[in-house]
Amino acid sequence: MTYAHAAAAPAGGTADTVLAESVVQSVDWLAVAPPTIVAVAAVALLVADLFVPERAKHLLGWSAVAALALSLLALLPLLDGDRGTFCLTDDPNVCSYTADRFALVVQLLVLAGALLAALLSVHDVRATKLPAGEFWFLLLASAAGAALLPAARDLATLVIALEVASLPAFALVGLRRGDRLSSEAALKFFLSSVTATAVMLLGISFVYAAGGSLHLARLADGLATAPEQLETLAAAGVVLTLVGFAFKTAAVPFHFWVPDTYVGAPIPVAAYLSVVGKAVGFSGLILVTVLAFPAYDHVWGPAIAVLAALTMTAGNVAALRQRADAPHSAVRLLAWSSVAQAGYLLVPIAAAAYADEPERAVGATLAYALMYGVVNLGAFAVVAAVGAKGGRGGRVTDYRGLASTRLPVALALAFFLINLAGLPPGIIGLFAKVTVLGAAVDAGLGWLAVVMAANVVVGLYYYLRWTALLFRPAAPAAEPPAVRTALAAPLRGAIGLTAALGIALSGAPQLVLRFAGEALL
Amino acid sequence: MDPTAMQLVLAAIVVLPLLGALAALFPAPPGLKGKNPDQAVLRHGVTVTGAVFALSVVLAAGFDYGADGPATMQAESDVSWIPALGIRIHLGVDGVSLPLLVLTALLTFLCAVYGYFVMPAGPSPRAFVALLLVLEGGMLATFAVLNLLLFFLAFEMVLIPMYFLIARWGGAGRGAAAWKFILYTLLGSVVMLLGLLLVGFQGGTFDMVALATDNGAGLTHTTQLVAVLAIGIGLAVKTPMWPLHSWLPDAHTSAPTVGSVLLAGVLLKMGTYGFVRVLLPIAPDGMETYAPYLAAFGVTGILYGSLACLALARTGARGDLKRLIAYSSVGHMGFVLLGISTLTPTGVNGALFANIAHGLITGLLFFLVGALKERTGTTDLDALAGRTGAALYGSAPRLGALVAFGAVASLGLPGLAGFWGEMLAMFAAYDPAAGLPRPAYLVFMAVAGFGTLLTAAYLLVVVRRVCMGDRTDDRPALGDVRRYEIAAWSPLVTLTVLAGLWPAALLGLTDPAVQKLLAGGS
After folding, report:
1. How far apart are the C-alpha atoms of B324 and B311, rounded to whole Å?
2. How many beta-carbon pairs below 8 A join chains A and B?
3. CA of A120 to nearest chain B CA: how many angstroms apart?
4. Start-to-end CA span in chain A (Å)
5. What is the three-state SS of A236-296?
6. Nearest-CA distance from B157 to chain A in Å?
7. For B357, how many CA atoms within 13 A lie in the half-sphere containing its CB?
């Protein structure tokens, strides 16, 4: 890391450490606790895997869940105010790690998302005989990177956090040994991701050359006052830097990996990627655009706006064309829908380029992402539950008549899908979309609002088609209905938790919508 | 009455059905178990809708009918809900919404009573009661909320229960009909949502009272044009306006009796109510531009509806009675649209009157057809009538009389409720608001007048074929009107007569409010 040389100074350094303080940074361990707990737990679980007997392996999963819960609790003491650590010794206002409201909200999303993905995996790891130690290590390592990213305030830390979040994800996708689909998915994901990272690094080097600093705040000043002949270089650097994050959010044209990867990966991993992976992408995007590149908002503003329009359209059109009876169509549909949703997430970021107060505009992205995180994880949880039981191909048509066999699960899925579509009674889904539309309208991006509205209408069709299928009478069964067994407790817990959150948010949308229009950074 | 008490009553009217729906899902508490779980839950439905109806009567009793009373919002409560979007839970009633509120509570109560005795064939009554109560909550909220986005929420809330009522408890072809119903109205309301957002973002608030007071001042002409078009499409689908009506006949034909009654009696009114409450005061310029087109579509609907009904009523057309009443609704709602599109107090008052009248009369007609279907097993006019006619006068005289009463009320016989609204709408078309093309409106008036003739024609044909005819002995005897049917229907009959003989009661209520809405809240 950038501060590899930095050692922890004893808290409350005494007078004789004054000299040391000029070169040694003090570390606010409380501020860095959330990602640190997860990272430590990751290593601990990997080591523990060697000593734990086979029959107790499931304890590893529960320990991972506990570690994630603990890191969520560690967010609580940070609520009282912004904290910075790993600051420059000559300028304590320029820090590499800042636990401000933005960071906390994204960390909440990432850690809670990872927690739910872990809950889903507890069952899956045992059922599909994945290597437990490796799985939990990789999941937690990736979550640690994802939790570090929103707090990072310099480009080097950002890139490292991005890679820490991504590299374990490739392995997670390919973890199903002996499954051709799984390894192919991992390879696709890996190759395209590495290319994107390489391009981004090139961009960062350009920006660094023009701006003279890696710290976002200083880079902003540096770029604003850069000599004129460097302008083209800086602009090229800005665009190339966005590529890496656009890849993570699965924005067009970096979206082709999504469906194959989601299908090839274990379902909990796909759920994890669809929420945490995206959170990593858009929070990085917000950090670099709003904090580092405000001088080039005429470059990234239109670029992201076009990207958003293309992404939502491409995702929706592909989802619309998805045949309901094709193999794996449920996950594929969710994959394409997640691409479309990524387009909505990008809208407020594009609007930030045109807004007077970009810090406020991006709040709509956070509000939307929180809503999306809850309902999308819920939908994946149901898919995991139904797939786990039926043992069939996970086609959308397999959901026909679910309401007559498993009414609560069907109702939960219907609620999640309706939220994704943005219709009552999915009130939070509706108002999150309204918030995003409002951000676009306020920024004067009327055309983008119209494109988004048209896309929402298209989205209605496939979400509702699936929802309606749940309540159709079941097709005359070719095979005798499987013996009804109770769902595994973690799956039930995950579905119940997301449904309860979704309902609570629908009753009090202000809980997440307050982040819209608030200066978080 | 004490303003706080009024507030609480109105809030309770909106919330109680939803709580009741939730409670219906749980097993009955000890002491209320009834004969069996089904009976207990059906009785629960009657209790809750009855309580809501009683509350609506209390609200009407406490309403201030003074000179300015109906024009002001009463029982108003205004609570912040989502500050981030400026959405407040703003409830209130005035002279426009009060009659609709009471009508909704009444019709739902009657439906619950009817359903208690004649549970439609289908899955569990538990879900039926819960859905009915959710439906009631949505309908009542539509007429009580004063915030554009809440209006949208309430507007949408009725879709899902109605979808399931049709799809689960309906007759033949119910799956396709329910799907068509939800798809049409959903697409319409998405377009409407965009219009509402446009108004909200441009006008700076989602509050209907504040926007009505601005009277379009905060909106540019272009915004108003786009907003009226978008919101108007959503409302027109619900109303339904020709040519966006084609979901209605299918939905009505397949829906169970209770669903049909509420669909025709209340759901259609939500569309026309939106025109009056949202579009007239908030975007007056836009409305003025589109008013002649709205009138033209309305009048086309009148003609189209009555011609379709004539075709269905012919011998050998295998016309379905429910379908016929559905098409007649298209015609009646055409009168409502014509009244609104004149943009005059007379026309809008007439439209609101016709709204209520249609709710009462068509509600009654669907009840009667449901009873007929229950007795004979069919609503096919040819099958019913046989060669000479169904001879209801002979076999079930009271039922026959009621059918004849419903038909003549529907054709607008003076002295019954159906007359005044349509008469006022045509009267207003003779002298539309300044700025509207009068010659066009004169034509509309003439066509609408011709439409009333056609309406009379097909309804009389229906009466002849259903009520009259030779009484042959090979027909099974039909049971005449039963006690619970009298209970469910007599309020509708009474109100139809009352509104016909004493229209001033209703018009006196709506007129001040309409004057205010047209003048922009001042």
Report:
1. 9
2. 57
3. 29
4. 23
5. HHHHHHHHHHHHHCCCCCCCCHHHHHHHHCCHHHHHHHHHHHHHHHHHHHHHHHHHHCHHH
6. 6
7. 38
Determine which of B148, B151, B197 to mutate to test the interface with A (most A C-beta atoms within 10 Å). B197
**B85 contacts A514? CB cut-off 8 A:** no
Return the amino acid letter for B161: P
Length of chain A: 521
Distance from CA of B195 to the nearest CA of A (A): 11
What does the pLDDT look like over B95-136, one tens digit per residue?
A: 999 999 999 999 999 999 998 988 878 788 888 999 999 999
Comparing alpha-carbon positions, the chain B residue that sits nearest to A516 is: B84
H/E stretch holding A87 reads strand A83-87
In angstroms, what CA-CA distances link A353 with A254, A319, B201? Answer: 22, 29, 20
Q: What angle do CA A446, A450, A452 make, to 5 degrees?
A: 115
CA distances from A516 to A349, A437, A519, B116, B385 (A): 12, 12, 8, 48, 64
**Residue range A140-165, pLDDT digits in tens:** 999 999 999 999 999 999 999 999 99
- Ordered by start, the domain boundaries in chain B are 1-146, 172-259+270-280, 293-513
CA-based max dimension of chain A: 82
Q: What is the pLDDT of residues A272-313, one digit of tens each?
A: 999 999 999 999 999 999 999 999 999 999 999 999 999 999
pTM here is 0.88
Q: Which residue of B has its CA nearest to A437?
A: B197
Q: Which of A441, A457, A509 sits opposite B82 (nearest CB)?
A: A509
Q: Angle at the Cα of A33 (from A32 to A38), degrees rounded to 5?
A: 115
Asked whether the beta carbons of residue A464 and residue B186 sit closer than 8 angstroms, the reply is: yes
Q: Label the pairing between strands B74-82 and A95-99.
A: unpaired
Question: Which conformational region is residue A99 in: left (phi greater than 0), alpha (psi within -120 to 50 degrees), or beta?
Answer: beta
Residue of A nearest to B80 (CA): A510
Beta bridge partners of B80: B88
Cα–Cα distance between A416 and A412 in angstroms, integer?
Answer: 6
Smallest Cα distance from B284 to chain A, Å: 23
Find tokens 């995206």 and name the residue: A278
B83, B153, B194 member nearest A453 (Cβ): B194
Alpha-carbon span A105 to A80, nearest angstrom: 13
Please answer yes or no on whether A510 and B83 come within 8 Å at the CB atom. Answer: yes
Are the Cβ atoms of B84 and A516 closer than 8 angstroms? yes
- The C-alpha atoms of residue B79 and residue B2 are separated, in whole angstroms, by 19
Contact present, A420 and A376 (Cβ < 8 Å)? yes
Residues of A in contact with B153 (CB under 8 A): 424, 427, 430
Smallest CA–CA distance from A462 into chain B, residue: B183
Interface predicted TM-score (ipTM):
0.84
Partner residue opposite A424 with nearest CB, options B81, B153, B164: B153
Backbone angles phi and psi of B468, in degrees to 5: -100, -175
Contact at CB, B201 and A438, closer than 8 angstroms = yes
Q: Distance between CA atoms of B472 and B469, rounded to whole angstroms?
A: 9
Residue in B closest to A453 by C-alpha = B194
A472-506 pLDDT, tens digit each: 777 665 554 555 567 788 889 999 999 999 999 99
For A293-336, give the secondary structure using H, E and C.
CHHHHHHHHHHHHHHHHHHHHHHHHHHHHCCCCCCCHHHHHHHH
Amino acid at A350: A
Question: Does the pLDDT value for residue A20 go beyond 60?
Answer: no
Pairwise CB contact (< 8 Å): A509 & B194: no
Distance CA B413, CA B409 (A): 6
| Token duo for residue A458 | 């298209």
